[in-house]
Design a protein that fits this description.
It is a single chain. By secondary structure, this protein is mainly alpha-helical. The chain has a domain of 53 residues. It has three helices and no strands. The protein is elongated, with a radius of gyration of 26 Å.
Length: 81
């Protein structure tokens, strides 16, 4: 379903330049590629957020934390040779 959009002179020149340089065969191709960028950013953002949530849950599931001083003393005793 074709649509018409006003994109401004700068964007119009950018589209023409991309076509003239042979990077794209038509304006629709340039616009489609341009619309993929925000979609890709959103997918990446969602994936990062899901990974962060997973890491947080893994930390919660690992049990209670230990004071830094306790861990440092243990490591110092273990590797003090």
């Amino acid at each position: 379903m074709p649509s018409n959009y006003l994109i401004g002179e700068h964007s119009e020149q950018l589209i023409k330049s991309q076509i003239q340089q042979g990077r794209y065969t038509g304006s629709s191709e340039v616009i489609h590629d341009g619309l993929r960028a925000p979609e890709n950013r959103e997918q990446l953002r969602s994936a990062k957020l899901e990974a962060l949530r997973s890491d947080i849950q893994q930390g919660i599931n690992s049990g209670p934390g230990r004071p830094l001083e306790e861990v440092a003393a243990e490591l110092h005793a273990r590797y003090q040779h």
